[in-house]
Amino acid sequence: MIPVAEPSIGEKELKNVIKAIKSGWISSKGEFIPEFEEKFAKYCGTKYGVAASNGTVALHLALATLGMKKGDEVIVPTLTFVATANAVVYCNAKPVFVDSHPDHWCIDPEKIEEKITKNTKAIIPVHLYGHPCDMDPIVDMTRDHDLYIIEDAAEAHGAEYKGRKVGSIGDIGCFSFYGNKIITTGEGGMLTTNDEEFAKKAMMLRDHAMSKEKRYWHEYIGFNYRMTNIQAALGVAQLEKIDKMVETKRKNAQSYNSLLNDVGGITLPPEATWAKNVYWMYSVLIEDEFGINRDELMLRLMENEIDSRPFFHPMHTMPPYKSDERLPIAEELSRKGISLPSAVSLKREEIEEVVNTIIGINDENSKIIF
Ligand SMILES: Cc1ncc(COP(=O)(O)O)c(C=O)c1O
Predict the structure, then answer these.
(1) Section 95-115 average pLDDT
(2) Ligand 1 and 184: CB distance under 6 A
(3) Residues 257 and 227 in one domain
């Protein structure tokens, strides 16, 4: 089976993890946590990093740090992983969904303004499948309306918008280090920010909002969203390879692009002129002309021992967030989108096998049609 994703764990990771375990610092104190925070923040081009137990709680922590509460509205793309919307609800605030841009698949900045009300407090642009959002118009809008930006960069480590790394453009960036992400700590997350107060508040809330001066004294209701030293040990070693991993993802995407370029009925992944796409997932659209639809293609690939993933369901189509509103671009992307095997460990022969299988399926169906 060619997997959609798999982690690349080497000797250095093992060495660091053993070191963390042998040190006895196996919970959330220990040398690897500040090291990982500092190095990841530096990689993103921010002053501070705040490690968390996973990407979902990183988003919740960011929203709590910025004071989101009942009655507040937060603008979110409808086409995202459910954690983006759920984190808003964890604060008793309301996610307000916006359609995708047809060219780059991320939130459409032109469709945000009409959703802003007097209750809107923040926007969460999601850098989807490794492609950055069009940030300038979003930054302008938040200045005009006095809103916060939390970048959901869970899927886009190292992606760039006009030369700036994602996670460094808004007020706070949030990352995931789940096992299928570009770098992993098993489970894990990180907030990145240039604002000292936000970093301090996030660190405090992450640890039950315990007073620094007075042990077991709590001025607020906080959380246990801490990362362990073992996870951070893994993260420090992974971070040493991040440039190589991003380069490999981009190289694999180029191989796929050149091999799939002439196959009818497939739209290749976008890379806007202002973007550096890190292709966390190599994702394409299966157009109606392809002959069979996305779901059938996934089944046929599986018969050939090739794993794949469908795009996310738009939030406004699922029971917790259901509404009658039509957000047609996201709905169409969700219906047509498929992520093909994208692991850093993917070999050139495996990419060729995936593409040849797709071409074979396409030929068969063209024959049936004619
Ligand atoms: C866009 C997005 N946001 C948030 C998350 C949540 O991250 P985690 O799984 O680490 O909680 C994910 C996870 O895959 C994601 O894709």
Answers:
(1) 98
(2) no
(3) no
